[in-house]
Amino acid sequence: MRLKSMESATIEDVVEQYGEDVWKLVFSYVRQEQAADDLTQEIFIKVYKKMDTFSGRSSLRTWIWRVAINHCKDYLNSWYKRKVFTEEDQHFQMMSSGSSVEGDVIQRNEDRELERAVLGLPLKYREIIYLHYYAERSIKEVSILLGVKENTVKTRLRRAKQLLKEGLVNG
User: Fold this and answer.
1) What pTM value is reported for the model?
2) Residue 51 carries which DSSP code?
3) What b-and-e string marks burial along 7-41, b requiring 16 or more CB atoms within 10 Å of the CB?
4) Helical pair 150-170 and 102-119, crossing angle rounded to 10 deg
């Protein structure tokens, strides 16, 4: 979606196009489904209210992701998050999938193990892994989204992969 078409776009159009990706990004930060739902809604409200500040220097997607990343970091640094315990993590761990063929079960178990390992990484590594591998952003795009140098992204990516490897081998 380009800036010229944004004048006629509704918030529903923006949510329809970017909602699922933003939710996945938010979940990678907060690791709680309910919190991800709430934060995603807050992010799109913020996007709607701040649409007039979108300058068009980046794509709309990049701008929305930057808003989402900043919002998630604010949330994680907030008093509420540090002081209030939620049981969403326990519910997430207890969810199980239905029966399927053995190969699918093994793959799902491996996927869950990798997901747990990624979600267990410190935030600065988790966000790099998510943006680069799951969201398929280039090193340069990740650098822009996070406001760090490309070499910092490469270093964090290398360290994150090392931590994942150690965690999966030892875990």
Assistant:
1) 0.59
2) G
3) eebeeeebbeebbeebbebbbbbbbbeebbeebbe
4) 130
Determine the 3-state secondary structure of 31 from DSSP.
coil
Q: What is the 3-state secondary structure (H, E, C) of 115-150?
A: HHHHHCCCHHHHHHHHHHHHCCCCHHHHHHHHCCCH
Rounded Cα–Cα distance for residues 140 and 135 (Å) = 13
Give the Cβ contact number of residue 94 at 10 Å: 8
Burial 148-160 (b: 16+ CB within 10 A, else e): eeeeebeebbeeb
pLDDT digits over 69-119, tens only?
Answer: 999 988 887 755 555 544 444 444 444 444 446 666 677 777 777 778 888
